[in-house]
Amino acid sequence: MDTYISLCVPIIVMLLCSTVFSTDISCKNEAGEPVDWFIIYKLPRYKIGEVGSGVDYMYLDSSVESWQMSKFTVNTSQGAIGKTLNQIYIGEAYKSNSSVYAFYNDAPPILEYIKGYGHTKGLLHFDHSQGFWLSHSIPHFPSFPEKGYRYPSSGKVNGQTALCVTYQYAQFLRIVEQMVYLFPRFYNCSVPGGFLADLPQLAQLCEGSKPPLASDKRVEQLFSIQGEKFASFVKSERFVDDIYTGWVAQALDVDLLVESWQREGHELPSNCSLPKHAMNIKRIRLPGSILFQSHYDHSKWCVSRAYEDQVTCLGDLNRERAQMWRGGGLVCSFNPLIYKAFRQVVDWYIGC
Ligand SMILES: *[C@@H]1O[C@H](CO)[C@@H](O)[C@H](O)[C@H]1NC(C)=O
Ligand SMILES: *[C@@H]1O[C@H](CO)[C@@H](O)[C@H](O)[C@H]1NC(C)=O
Ligand SMILES: *[C@@H]1O[C@H](CO)[C@@H](O)[C@H](O)[C@H]1NC(C)=O
Ligand SMILES: *[C@@H]1O[C@H](CO)[C@@H](O)[C@H](O)[C@H]1NC(C)=O
């Protein structure tokens, strides 16, 4: 009996500890604690009437009322993105065969730009239990796993956004089906043997080959680990249209205000030809009178114009002519807190 107890107590302590100090793969907040989702808005260097550092950012998750200025900068791993990615870098998860990781970016670090892939940026990391999907707008990011967390200097000039959502394993099977349409450029990837039966398409994509498509676009509902609903809209390059006007506004039946990076002479004007409209945002005002022109914002997001519709999407594509021929997508949320945060920063848009 005595032996039984003395063996048993350490086991119970171990079990308790592993529940409290969870090693579950997850999005992490600014304190390094697991969160269901977070969003960051990296501020541009050039604001109206002010030149900033280019590395400051605002943070949002379900525990805060609105955008919080971070006390960290995006080029250190102390903030939410760094703490989330350090599960791969410092945790060396990239050496493990019990989890999957996949970094993708049409403009990867160092390597040459190759045409033909989707205009999409992000990473997946999960095990058989759960993990996260981080999608963002930052070229040349994230750095190779063995390099540790680094933020590219090219990502400092313009505004950028990132959305991280924690999902159970089963949701990654759906996310991978979306990836087939996106056809991302995966530059660092590992799908260990234990995942191949479930995720043959991800393994194929990682090798650079393209699984066949049933259609030219696809929408899928996703539920985060806490049950928050998201809708993933993805199009392949075969759906030749502006994703905002030609599809998402009509599919969601809402007028959209779109913030995207538009180069002069290449931009699509605000469009009110179809039943639901897509209009270009020109100026953003974040809390604390942080005012900047869309010209210096490389992020890609949209909100419903009408407050009652409460739609916010973050994604991959600009309202730009050439991007009609690119794969890419949007992750849409119906969360009132996310909607308020984005809708209230729209300072000026071009109606039609
Ligand atoms: C982060 O970027 C700022 C502004 O460019 C720079 O002053 C600082 O040294 C950088 N920090 C790191 C750790 O790279
Ligand atoms: C995973 O790695 C461990 C330790 O290196 C090894 O013993 C095991 O056989 C590997 N499993 C698979 C499925 O490759
Ligand atoms: C990531 O990709 C780069 C470029 O191909 C390569 O040099 C590096 O070794 C890869 N890292 C890992 C961990 O596979
Ligand atoms: C508005 O967008 C639709 C769908 O992309 C397109 O067919 C139409 O030509 C556009 N209208 C104008 C005036 O650009």
UniProtKB/TrEMBL annotation:
Parts of the chain that traverse the membrane: none
Single GO biological process annotation from the record: apoptotic DNA fragmentation
A GO molecular function held by the record: deoxyribonuclease II activity
Enzyme class: hydrolase
Pfam families reported for this sequence: DNase_II
Keywords associated with the record: Hydrolase, Signal
Keyword Amino-acid biosynthesis in annotation: no
Signal peptide extent: 1-22
Catalytic activity from the UniProt record: Endonucleolytic cleavage to nucleoside 3'-phosphates and 3'-phosphooligonucleotide end-products
InterPro entries assigned: DNase_II (IPR004947)
The protein's Enzyme Commission number: 3.1.22.1
Family indicated by similarity: Belongs to the DNase II family.
Protein's recorded name: deoxyribonuclease II
